[in-house]
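Subject: for your reference before the review

Hello V.,

The reviewers asked for a structural picture of the protein, and I figured it would be easier to keep everything in one thread rather than splitting it across files. Below is the amino acid sequence we used in the manuscript, unchanged from the supplementary table.
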Amino acid sequence: IKKTSETKKKDNMVRRRTQKRRFKITTELVLFLINLAVFIFMSLYTDNFLTQYNISNVFRQVSIIGVVAISSTLVIISGGIDLSVGSIVGLTAMISAVLMSESYQNMAILPAVVLAIISGLMVGVYHGFIIYEIKLPPFIATLGSMFVVRGIVKMISGARTIAHLPSAFTDFAKQEVLGVPGLVILWLLIALAVHFMLRYTTFGRNIFVIGSSQEVARLSGIRMRLNFYGIYILAGLLCSIAGVMLSSRISSAVPTGGSGYELTAIAAAVI
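And here is what came back from the structure prediction:
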């Protein structure tokens, strides 16, 4: 009788798992069909949708969000949230533009880009500090950073659009390799690098363990301070790269650059 009851329980568990898998596959299939229907509709009833220029332009725009989404993915896996990604994108875009613009510092491209990326890294260090050392919840910590960093962007720019960037810098966003935009190639390279890190490195596996249970991670001997700082510094680095990509794509920097990227990046990460 005991064996029979145990067998029934196992059968019920298998059935539940099968039903969940079917539901998941059905949900994904429905979403795919909806997107396919929208794509077909737009292709048939608009003249400019299914053109090489439009598709290429869409991929250029999506590549920037894609890099930010990778940043949000890392933070979400670790059990946190980052609401400041859009502000960091705007900050690095603005700093790189101010440093390179002929009307301002007129600095060489490489030093300007490096300094802009360093600014994003510093925001990541700040997040690691207030989240791990001060024990502030990631939601509150990054929400505050979102407004503070956005204010810094407006102070740097004087609430003005910064233009007149070097053509060698803006041409990067226009370059294509075998018909594939350079921004998309950079996005895919970053995605592959992060995938390799998450799957094959100790740091990547630690991110999953920390996200599952910080207590388990601590008892397992994982160096929590080092990994927390590493997660948010890496997130800041990716957002900084996205900011440089943004300023190259639009050939300028605006005080509102990156606004609204937070929810879009989180949605992309979850999906």
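For the response letter, the relevant points are probably these. The mean pLDDT is 89. The chain is about 75% helix and 0% strand.

Happy to draft the paragraph if you're swamped.

O.
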